[in-house]
Amino acid sequence: MTSLLTVKSLCVGFPGKRGVLPAVEDLDFHIAPGETLAIVGESGSGKSTAALSIPGLLSRSSRPVVSGSVRFEGQEMLNMPDRKLARMRGPDVGMIFQDPSTSLNPVFTIGRQICEPLRTHMGLDARAAEARAIELLELVKVSAPEQRLAQYPHNLSGGMRQRVMIAIALACSPRLLIADEPTTALDVTVQAQVLRLISGLQKSLGMAVLLITHDLGVVWETADRVIVMYAGRKVEEGPVRRILSQPSHPYTEGLLRAARKEGRDGFLTEIPGVVPPPHQRPPGCAFEPRCARAIAACRAAVPAIRSTGPGQVAACIRAEEGQPA
Amino acid sequence: MAFSIPPFLQFMFRRVLQIIPVVIAIAALNFLLLSLAPGDAADVISANNGGASAEEVQALRESLGLDRPMIVQFFSYMGGVLTLDLGQSYVRGMPVLDLVMSRVPATLLLMVTSLALAVLAGILLGILSSTRYGSLLDRVMSIISLLLYSTPHFWLALMMIVFFSVHLGLLPSGNIATIGGDFSFLGRVWDVFVHLILPAVTMAMFYIAVYMRLMRSSMLEVLDLDYITAARARGASEKKIAYSHAARNALLPVVTLAGVQIGHALGGSVLIETVFGWPGLGRLVYESLLERDTNTLMGILVVSSVLVIVVSLCIDLVCGLLDPRIVHK
Fold first, then answer.
1. Are A232 and A45 within 8 A, CB to CB?
2. Is B90 part of a structural domain of the chain?
3. What value of ipTM does the predicted structure carry?
4. Preferred mutation among A80, A103, A162 to probe B, highest tally of B CBs within 10 A
5. Do B201 and B108 lie in a common domain?
6. B223 chain-A contacts, CB cut-off 8 A
7. CA dist list (Å): B60 to A120, B45, B50, B72
8. Structurally, how many domains does chain B consist of?
């Protein structure tokens, strides 16, 4: 299978008072054309950082230290000059963000923001770009698209804004769409609409989607494969059906139990403890302090990734091949 | 409603209406403050004319209406203000309004030129500094702005004269035009321009430093926001992001501060105009203070408060144009 995006040993750190704090460590994955890969994890697991580092969009003021390799169709994107990278953002990699209320520029009209990539990358003149912008708004099912062009973000509802963000991301027909928690800031009813919209467009346009989420329900509905991240590392990866039915890693299992609300006496199930911050990660398995199945060997070294089933890998010394954790 | 007024016009109309009570309040406050000062115009006039007996001073007081109760004087003054009659200058023997208005153009020319220069230069330098955050250039500019910010106006003005007029002989040291100069229209414009350079640049220096610092920090804040990342994500160039996406948002606090500082600039112009002999309101303030010409002083305060309010109204309108959200608030 040819891969559209290949990420190898990606490490991202942020300089702090006590040296560089690792946010993402040694992350490997690939995405095939047209595939949907979901990355799930709690806040602070490094999933958004990993996603943002692909098109080089990490906040500059935090001076991120990135190493490893990110190849898009064989082309190395890390350390690519700004100018060249800017030409890939839009036509090759599109991006949708978590909060549509902050990701649209408040002082520019919707039309201007949709037309921007069309004019920069596709060389359309003002009139052609406007016509295409109206088509795009129709595509993402925004009502009265002609009128919307002259409106400002504050004239639109949250769901509408996210549709506009999707229209902007799709403007140059990217082959990979990175969606960083696209539904987190939206109402539940709107969430489903937006997800359905993304999946529908993905099928009709044949693009690959990298979906970042903490919502296992969203993963189940939309993704082909899933990566579970914990404390900056990948702990499990595999086909969605397999992972959600037979998780190998105790953390994935805990997440599933919490998501299914399998509690006793109507209480929610939780994983005891919290994700350790980057400067307090234990030398061994980062999940060990919270893990019910931990043994002494877990504290010795970071567990290696190994196969635990068809297409499934996990980073746990206690997981046996073909056996649920 | 059969027809609707566009929100922008409504916004303007509301702001214009707000001017009237503010001017009245300022005029009233000025009157009360100055009436608290000991002595009155009758004392000053008689002292200036070589002294007078108590009866003569009392007669003068009666003829000027200064013997009336304070409350009567107050309402008579306020009535004058409302009908654009600011009284007579006892010292100069002419209507205050004429005197003040004759000085307004020179002050406006100086203020508008120096503030425009300061806003423009401050914004550009601020953007430059923010896009090169932490670089040598950024640090050098920070130090220079700190120096400019902490240098007193009048000292800088004197040094400018010493350097550019005395040492280099490049620019005139004072006044608004060459005395006795006989020029064509363009020749006059050029002459005034040459005279304007030193006072305008001196006055702008301080504000350049202020606006540069503010624009820099405002830009740094905006450059970290989601919509800048989003603009980057759709392939906008770094130049476009800084000068279009971020600058437009970062401008708001700078423009707002510029509006607030119009009053400050008028105050600062007292020093600048005095040092450079610029025949504007600032120098008139200085002269009237020394002459204890209270009517003129009150007139200047009323007119300059109207000036400040009108300019800050213009600033509000600019903000409304810059940020569409403001109109609706």
1. yes
2. no
3. 0.86
4. A103
5. yes
6. 60-61
7. 78, 9, 14, 18
8. 2
